[in-house]
Structure formats: structure tokens, C-alpha cells
């Protein structure tokens, strides 16, 4: 089963990356802007969001071409959020995945504009998709704006900034994560299933699944900052404690955090079973999210 | 005729502003994010873009409700671009229209996020419009992403930044303006006419009109920086010369710039006549753009 998942991830990762590059290379735009957008797109990453989208689709649909533009649009929005997050005015990070951040290679102004361009272009991509109906395009753009805009990811970023200066409780911590990270993961699964023509009831159960998957992702992130291998995760461990970040281990202790994660895994799998998607890659991805070491 | 235009502008300006505020106040998002978005939305401005959109629509259509969301989305995108443009990493402006810029009132991080949120929310608004068909929504979002993204406004901003350090010729200057300012004006007129169900041929002529209108707007901007009244334009005159900006008066002399503007006015009006929109507010707006003193 592990091999099956690895093959699925590796094949789709390559496909997503090729598709993104092709789209970008075909764009007739100023050289510096293109270089800056491409730099962050090619900087790698696990491509978890488009892979989740493909897995959500595969649980019900077959023709993978139907989800490619949406998957790429999603990854571009994730990429834009990282480019803006790394800016000196935000997290002020010089490195991401071991490479200099966008504004370090270009400059702050170019990084701001490249982020704006990636965000805007992601919606353009969906409007031009030849495999989706207009009704599907409108619904997907609506879901994506809700997930990434002021009600979703951007709300999470503002709340996260505000929480840095104070103590928060577990419920507040989960709200921040659900908005900042969870909403895009939720979009991935929801839009994949929708394009795969899952029933409304199935989409609702997958929505519940996605909620828990987002939390699993975050608890594991926090756990890795305590117990992870710095070489594998690509950054020093213990930085959350130094930065006095609100994390699961801080609020619950390390054992409490692991216990919480196991509870979320149980809830996620139960929702999957209800969604009649239990034979899909989503089940394998749940354990992958829970056990990842980077 | 002047009174007719003034009434049109004032009535629609108020309506647009009320609509924008209502939409924003109804948004259930973090307080700080909402305050920052509202601050820049309420900061005023001429609302030229939504007014042009309404005028483009009025040349063919009647039920104004059909264009309200699109007009507001357009103004929100214009607003986001100003918020990001004013950032220290970009133009580093402390004042806009005599008031402190967004990042001065809040902070750089909040201004970046408020801009991102305005951009994303503008597309969400269009997906939720109850008066447009899905086909219309997809086409409008496509036009708006093209006008504001890496092929349009953002391309213009990058090229403008690069041109600051060198001498450019008239053609290069016009390319920058067409992308940076013209594309959104073009979207205003084109989408208004499209929703008003103008024929394809009429839309093409209006497109030509919009191209010249954008240039008229820019030449007059440059002229006002030489001959304008600082109290009216809200900033000191002569700043373009001090900043060694590439402008029409610099490349053509003041008389040459005025002559060029008159040529553009002639071309704009000819296109309008071809579009069978000669009785519309667009004709009046052409003179208004050409003769404005602020």
C-alpha cells in the first residue's frame, strides 16, 4: 500500500510541475515578472494540495484532465501566499526549503508583484479550462476565493499575526490553523470531489474529512518542530519554542499532542468511510499526513 | 451637457460607494482586516473606473443592477493596487488623497494582506452576482484577470519600475501606461458594453475608444503635473521632473503633449461614433477626461 501511495504521489507531482511550467512558459509577460513567478513555482515543495485534489477527484471521477487547471491554480495560490508571507514586512524569512526566498533573489517590490500576479493568474487559468462547464468554473472560483480570501487563508494570516503577541487557547489555535491552512486543503478535496461528480452528501462527508486532515497536518507540523530531524524538515527544530509560538505540544504536552492527532486520524477515517471513498488514495494520504517526517 | 454629466457622475459615485460599503460591512471577517480594507475603500477617489463601466453599459443596456457587482469588483481591484503601490517596498508613499496611506495607519503586513484580500474578494463578488449568467460571469472574470494580472496592470507596474532608471521613448512610455492604467479602463468599458449586450463589432470599436481614453487620461495626468493647481490635484506640481519620470511633456514638450492629447480625443470620438454609442455618456466623459483639472 505504501508503494501504491508513493507511486501516486510521485507521478502526479511530476505531472503537476510540468503543467505549471508549461503554462508559465507560454505566458507572454515581462521577463523579470516571469522569472520571479517561475522561481517560486519551481522551488519545489511537496505539492500536497494539488495531490489531495487529484485524490479527491479519483475517489469518484476518471478523466484526470478535468482537474488539472484547478489543481495548478490551487498550487499557484499556495505559492503566492508563501512569497508574500516571506516578505520582510511579514515573517521576514531569507530561506525557504533551503533556497533564498523570492524577495532575496529579486527584491521586495518584485516579490509583492509576483505574488499578486500568481494570485490573479490562478483565476484566469480556471476561466480558460477547456474541460469544465461555465457552471463548474463559477462554482470552483467561488470556492477558491472563499478558501483563499478574507474569509479563509488571509483571515488566518491576520489572526496568526495577532496571536503572536498573546497566549491563546486550543480552540483559538484550531480556528487559526483551520483558516490559514485548512481552508485550502478543504478546497482541494471538495473541488476534486465536485469535479468528479460526487453527490452532495458525499461532498459534505469529505468536507468533514478535510477539516480533520487539516488539523492532522498542523499537529504533525508542531510535533516535528519538537522531535523532527532538522536535515529532513529543512529547518532547525525548536524554533517554535524560541519564538514562543502557540503550538499543540505547548498547550497539551508532546504526548497530549500525539493523542490528539490519533483522535483526528480516527475522525478523518470515519468521515471517509461515510463518504464511500474508503478505497481511494485519501485513506492512504491520511496516514501519510499523520506519519510524515518532513 | 456639463450638468448632465455631473449629475451622472455624482449619482453613480454615491451609489457605488454605498454598495461597496454594504458589501464590506456584511463580510464576516477579522476586525483588523475589515478595518484595513474599509479604510482604503472609503478613502474616496474619483471612482472613474466604475463610472466608465456604468457609462459603457448605459450606451446599450438599461437595468443598472446587472453591472453593480462588476463595477464594485473593478474599484476594489483598483484599490488593492493602490494599497500595494504605496508600500515602502514600492513607491513608499505616506499620503494618498491627503490622507495617510493604509500601511501608515495599520502596518505593512496588514496592508499587504488587505490588498490580497481585496483582490481575491473582487472575484468572489462576481461569482455571487444574482443578475449575471454563469457564462457572463466566466467571461467577465477572464477579462478582469487579464486586465489586472501579469498580462495587464501588474506587467505595467513591473515595466514602470524598470523604466525609472533609464530613458525611454514615446512608444515604450505608451506601452507602460496602456498596461498599468489603460487595461483597467478598457475592462470598464468593454465589460459594461458586454453586459449591456452590445454586438461584438460595437465592443471592438469601444475597445479602440478605451485605448485612446486611457492615453488621454495619462497625458492629462502628466500635463497637470506641470500646469496644475496643487490644491486641486492634491499633490505638489513638478514632482515628475524632480523624480526624472518619463512623461509626455518631457518627451514632447508641453505644447507637443497638448497636441498629442487633442489627436487622441479626435481618435476616441471617431471610435465612439463607429460604435453607435455617440449619444451616450462616453462622449461627455472623453472631454471630461481631457479637460479635468484634478
Automatic annotation (TrEMBL), chains A, B:
Work out whether the entry's keyword set contains Metal-binding: yes
Q: Does the keyword Ribosomal protein apply?
A: no
Q: Name one GO biological process term.
A: terpenoid biosynthetic process
User: What is the E.C. number?
Assistant: 2.5.1.10
List cellular component terms (GO): cytoplasm
Record key words, sorted:
Isoprene biosynthesis, Magnesium, Metal-binding, Transferase
UniProt superkingdom: Bacteria
Q: Which reaction(s) does the protein catalyse, per the Swiss-Prot or TrEMBL entry?
A: isopentenyl diphosphate + (2E)-geranyl diphosphate = (2E,6E)-farnesyl diphosphate + diphosphate
Q: Which cofactor does it need?
A: Mg(2+)
UniProt lists the family membership as follows: Belongs to the FPP/GGPP synthase family.
Instruction: State the name under which the record lists this protein.
Output: Farnesyl diphosphate synthase
Per the UniProt record, the source organism is Virgibacillus salinus
Amino acid at each position: 500500500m505504501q508503494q501504491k501511495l508513493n507511486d501516486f504521489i510521485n507521478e502526479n507531482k511530476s505531472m503537476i510541475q510540468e503543467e505549471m511550467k508549461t503554462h508559465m512558459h507560454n505566458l507572454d509577460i515581462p521577463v523579470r515578472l516571469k522569472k520571479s513567478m517561475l522561481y517560486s513555482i519551481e522551488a519545489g515543495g511537496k505539492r500536497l494540495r494539488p495531490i489531495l485534489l487529484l485524490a479527491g477527484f479519483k475517489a469518484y471521477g476518471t478523466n484526470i484532465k478535468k482537474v488539472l487547471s484547478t489543481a495548478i491554480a490551487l498550487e499557484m495560490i499556495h505559492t503566492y501566499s508563501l512569497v508574500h508571507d516571506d516578505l520582510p514586512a511579514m515573517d521576514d524569512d531569507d530561506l525557504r526549503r533551503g533556497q533564498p526566498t523570492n524577495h532575496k533573489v529579486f527584491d521586495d517590490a518584485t516579490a509583492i508583484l509576483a505574488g499578486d500576479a500568481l494570485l490573479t493568474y490562478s483565476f484566469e487559468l480556471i476561466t480558460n479550462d477547456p474541460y469544465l462547464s461555465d457552471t463548474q468554473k463559477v462554482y470552483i472560483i467561488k470556492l477558491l476565493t472563499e478558501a483563499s480570501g478574507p474569509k479563509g487563508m488571509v483571515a488566518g494570516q491576520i489572526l496568526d499575526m495577532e496571536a503572536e503577541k498573546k497566549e491563546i487557547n486550543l480552540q483559538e489555535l484550531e480556528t487559526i490553523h483551520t483558516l490559514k491552512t485548512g481552508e485550502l486543503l478543504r478546497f482541494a478535496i471538495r473541488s476534486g470531489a465536485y469535479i468528479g461528480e460526487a453527490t452532495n452528501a458525499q461532498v459534505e462527508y469529505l468536507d468533514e474529512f478535510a477539516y480533520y486532515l487539516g488539523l492532522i497536518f498542523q499537529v504533525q507540523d508542531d510535533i516535528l518542530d519538537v522531535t523532527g530531524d532538522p536535515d529532513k524538515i529543512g529547518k532547525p527544530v525548536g524554533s517554535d519554542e524560541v519564538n514562543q509560538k502557540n503550538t499543540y505540544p505547548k498547550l497539551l504536552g508532546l504526548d497530549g499532542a500525539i493523542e490528539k492527532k490519533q483522535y483526528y486520524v480516527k475522525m478523518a477515517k470515519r468521515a471517509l468511510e461515510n463518504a464511500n471513498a474508503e478505497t481511494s488514495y485519501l485513506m492512504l494520504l491520511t496516514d501519510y499526513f499523520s506519519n510524515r517526517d518532513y
